[in-house]
Design brief:
This protein has three helices and no strands. The chain is an all-alpha fold.
């Protein structure tokens, strides 16, 4: 899940915006909305079931910070698509 919100989904979102690929954009928005259910109140991710859960801690984790930055950069696209 961590790689999805940090790398895969933001890259797909950027692609969909740059290429005006609406089907991809819709899928990315749906996936990001689903992933948001796993965001903790402090902005970190509940990746307790992830394949690398032994490696990450949600206490001020760098991946969580990067994920929030990526999501913020895509936020306007997600809001526009949800309307």
């Amino acid at each position: 899940m961590g790689y999805n919100v940090e790398e895969s989904l933001p890259s797909l979102a950027l692609y969909s915006l740059l290429s005006d690929d609406k089907p991809v954009q819709q899928q990315v928005v749906a996936a990001m909305k689903t992933h948001m259910e796993f965001m903790l109140p402090d902005g970190a991710w509940d990746n307790s079931f992830g394949s690398r859960n032994y490696k990450w801690s949600w206490w001020a984790a760098a991946p969580a910070t990067a994920a929030i930055q990526d999501l913020c950069s895509c936020r306007s696209s997600i809001r526009d698509s949800a309307r």
